[in-house]
Specification:
Length: 107
Protein backbone atom coordinates (compact mmCIF):
# COMPACT_ATOMS: atom_id res chain seq x y z
CA UNK A 1 0.00 0.00 0.00
CA UNK A 2 1.08 3.52 -0.82
CA UNK A 3 -0.04 6.52 1.22
CA UNK A 4 -1.19 9.56 -0.77
CA UNK A 5 -2.87 12.78 0.33
CA UNK A 6 -5.64 14.51 -1.59
CA UNK A 7 -6.53 18.10 -0.79
CA UNK A 8 -10.12 18.72 -1.82
CA UNK A 9 -11.18 22.10 -3.26
CA UNK A 10 -12.64 22.94 0.19
CA UNK A 11 -9.16 22.53 1.71
CA UNK A 12 -10.07 19.27 3.45
CA UNK A 13 -7.12 16.84 3.47
CA UNK A 14 -7.85 13.16 2.86
CA UNK A 15 -5.05 10.64 3.45
CA UNK A 16 -5.58 7.34 1.65
CA UNK A 17 -3.84 4.00 1.33
CA UNK A 18 -3.57 3.15 -2.37
CA UNK A 19 -3.10 -0.34 -3.74
CA UNK A 20 0.00 -0.52 -5.94
CA UNK A 21 -0.91 -0.36 -9.61
CA UNK A 22 -4.22 1.45 -9.09
CA UNK A 23 -4.58 4.87 -10.67
CA UNK A 24 -4.88 7.66 -8.14
CA UNK A 25 -8.18 8.60 -9.81
CA UNK A 26 -9.51 5.12 -8.93
CA UNK A 27 -8.31 5.54 -5.37
CA UNK A 28 -9.93 8.97 -5.07
CA UNK A 29 -13.28 8.07 -6.61
CA UNK A 30 -13.61 4.81 -4.67
CA UNK A 31 -12.96 6.74 -1.45
CA UNK A 32 -15.31 9.65 -2.15
CA UNK A 33 -12.71 12.40 -2.60
CA UNK A 34 -14.62 15.53 -3.59
CA UNK A 35 -13.86 17.40 -6.78
CA UNK A 36 -12.72 14.59 -9.06
CA UNK A 37 -15.44 14.03 -11.67
CA UNK A 38 -13.61 11.34 -13.69
CA UNK A 39 -16.22 11.49 -16.45
CA UNK A 40 -14.30 9.17 -18.81
CA UNK A 41 -13.58 6.59 -16.13
CA UNK A 42 -9.82 6.90 -16.41
CA UNK A 43 -9.15 6.61 -20.14
CA UNK A 44 -7.38 10.00 -20.39
CA UNK A 45 -10.19 11.43 -22.52
CA UNK A 46 -11.83 14.15 -20.43
CA UNK A 47 -9.40 16.02 -18.10
CA UNK A 48 -11.93 15.93 -15.22
CA UNK A 49 -9.49 14.42 -12.71
CA UNK A 50 -7.09 17.38 -12.88
CA UNK A 51 -4.86 17.81 -9.82
CA UNK A 52 -1.70 19.64 -8.86
CA UNK A 53 1.13 17.35 -7.72
CA UNK A 54 2.88 18.68 -4.62
CA UNK A 55 5.39 17.61 -2.01
CA UNK A 56 8.76 15.90 -2.30
CA UNK A 57 7.28 12.78 -3.91
CA UNK A 58 6.10 14.82 -6.91
CA UNK A 59 9.70 14.77 -8.17
CA UNK A 60 9.44 10.95 -8.40
CA UNK A 61 6.47 10.94 -10.75
CA UNK A 62 7.11 9.68 -14.26
CA UNK A 63 6.74 12.44 -16.83
CA UNK A 64 3.30 12.86 -18.41
CA UNK A 65 2.69 11.03 -21.68
CA UNK A 66 1.92 12.91 -24.88
CA UNK A 67 -1.74 11.96 -24.43
CA UNK A 68 -1.83 13.38 -20.92
CA UNK A 69 -0.13 16.58 -22.06
CA UNK A 70 -2.71 16.95 -24.83
CA UNK A 71 -5.59 16.48 -22.37
CA UNK A 72 -4.04 18.99 -19.96
CA UNK A 73 -4.60 21.57 -22.70
CA UNK A 74 -8.33 21.10 -22.00
CA UNK A 75 -8.47 21.54 -18.22
CA UNK A 76 -11.11 23.91 -16.85
CA UNK A 77 -8.96 25.24 -14.00
CA UNK A 78 -5.62 26.98 -14.36
CA UNK A 79 -2.97 24.74 -15.89
CA UNK A 80 0.24 24.90 -13.88
CA UNK A 81 3.64 23.20 -14.25
CA UNK A 82 2.47 20.77 -11.53
CA UNK A 83 -0.79 19.89 -13.33
CA UNK A 84 -1.44 16.18 -13.76
CA UNK A 85 -4.39 13.93 -14.47
CA UNK A 86 -4.85 11.57 -11.54
CA UNK A 87 -6.02 8.81 -13.90
CA UNK A 88 -2.50 8.71 -15.35
CA UNK A 89 -0.63 8.32 -12.06
CA UNK A 90 -0.25 4.79 -10.74
CA UNK A 91 0.28 4.08 -7.07
CA UNK A 92 3.88 2.93 -6.57
CA UNK A 93 6.38 3.00 -3.68
CA UNK A 94 8.27 5.87 -5.33
CA UNK A 95 5.33 8.23 -4.80
CA UNK A 96 4.75 7.46 -1.11
CA UNK A 97 3.47 10.65 0.52
CA UNK A 98 2.49 12.37 -2.73
CA UNK A 99 0.10 15.27 -2.27
CA UNK A 100 -2.50 15.90 -4.96
CA UNK A 101 -4.40 19.18 -4.69
CA UNK A 102 -7.66 18.71 -6.59
CA UNK A 103 -8.32 21.54 -9.06
CA UNK A 104 -11.21 23.80 -8.03
CA UNK A 105 -13.21 23.14 -11.20
CA UNK A 106 -13.16 20.16 -13.54
CA UNK A 107 -15.59 21.10 -16.30
Amino acid sequence: MVEVVFIEPSGNEVTLEATEGWSLMQVATSSGVEGIDAECGGSCACATCHCYAEGEAAANLPPPSEGELAMLDNVAAERRPSSRLSCQIKAAPEIEGLILRVAEVQS
